[in-house]
Design brief:
InterPro entries: MutL_C_dimsub (IPR042120), MutL_C_sf (IPR037198). The protein is an all-alpha fold. It has one domain (2-66). The protein has helices at residues 2-19, 28-41, 60-66. The mean pLDDT is 79.
């Protein structure tokens, strides 16, 4: 059972590669959904503070345009 548990992250990574449709651009909504699903599968073990994994989105220009 311990070996199975240790292999789970590698299996999840392999499965994700096998079933993922590669797109050059994702909408913000799609990206958030994918990250949320991966976070659930990895039980909070995603490297969300790693700048190569995720990048911050600056909404200040969008918010400024919405202001009256």
């Amino acid at each position: 059972e311990k070996a199975s548990t240790q292999m789970l992250p590698a299996l999840i990574d392999w499965l994700a590669v096998q079933v993922t449709t590669v797109k050059s651009h994702y909408t913000l909504s799609e990206a958030i959904q994918i990250i949320a699903e991966l976070e659930q599968l990895r039980h909070g073990q995603l490297p969300l503070d790693d700048k190569t994994f995720v990048s911050a989105v600056d909404f200040s220009a969008t918010i400024a345009k919405l202001k009256p």
